[in-house]
Design a protein that fits this description.
With 257 residues, the protein is α/β, with parallel strands linked by helices. It is built from five helices and ten strands, in the order E-E-E-H-E-E-E-E-H-E-H-H-H-E-E. Strand 9 and strand 10 form a beta hairpin.
Length: 257
């Protein structure tokens, strides 16, 4: 596996004595290449908002490493309301010190773009290699470790991270498949059931149900098909800000925002 290093100092050296138990997947919500994202991380050194991740995988299947696995990358931000129960609400231990983070370059700001075949192959192989070397369980995350998305730590600000991702194909690959499977396309029955759920909470309101043409809908549908259910939307999309004051498009769901 060919990995180019472009390291930065946006990290917790030595993980403060902790070992990685979880692998967290991310989407960049913008950008065009792994090199560009790694250079962006490098450019935030010593600034007001330094950020990083351990690895970045782009649409051409090129992989860059921005943080050593022995250090905790500035990748996972804060733990917010609705987080999975194994993340401590007070952020202790810091999730960055017990995780390895992999970014996937997504050109759209909703992280709705599907991985390219080259990106999917590189992502799957990288994940398997990381898990084998660090004894991270190759399954859905729970309190003892595993693989999850940034949404499980910060569902308030990162509900669309990593966004569209072929989770079922990943676990098939990790379970012994030699090559990643083609992306799973939802069946007509799955789409109908999903839309019935999507429309259920708002269909009787004056404004009517939320539109289905948005990136948020696509990310919600992809999560639903792979077993992650946020409940139906209880609002339409609206402009908001994250906790750092950055503008975002938000939508609230019965089980998450």
């Amino acid at each position: 596996m060919n990995i180019t290093q472009l390291l930065n100092n946006n990290c917790f050296p030595g993980r403060n004595g902790f070992k990685p138990k979880w692998l967290v997947l991310h989407g960049t919500a913008g950008g065009t290449s792994a090199q560009e994202i790694a250079q962006f991380f490098k450019g935030t050194e010593n600034g007001s908002n330094p950020v990083s991740a351990h690895y970045i995988v782009d649409e051409q299947g090129i992989i860059y490493q921005a943080t050593l696995e022995s250090d905790g990358a500035y990748a996972n931000g804060v733990v917010t309301a609705g987080h999975e129960p194994w993340w401590n609400a007070d952020g202790n231990p810091n999730p960055n010190n017990v995780t390895i983070s992999v970014e996937h370059v997504k050109p759209d700001d909703a992280n709705a773009t599907a991985l390219t075949p080259a990106q999917q192959s590189a992502s799957f192989a990288l994940i398997r290699d990381i898990c084998q070397r660090n004894n991270i369980p190759t399954r859905w995350a729970d309190s003892s470790g595993g693989i999850t998305g940034h949404y499980s730590i910060d569902p308030v600000n990162r509900s669309r991270c990593p966004g569209t991702y072929p989770w079922a194909e990943l676990y098939n690959y990790l379970d012994g498949g030699n090559q990643p499977m083609p992306p799973t396309q939802p069946s007509a029955n799955q789409i109908k059931a999903a839309r019935d759920s999507w429309y259920s909470a708002l269909k009787s309101t004056v404004a009517g149900p939320a539109p289905t043409g948005s990136g948020i809908y696509q990310a919600w549908l992809a999560a639903l098909i792979t077993g992650k259910f946020y409940g139906p939307p209880i609002t339409r999309e609206y402009d908001s800000v994250d906790w750092a004051g950055n503008p975002i498009v938000a939508q609230e769901f019965a089980h998450a925002r």
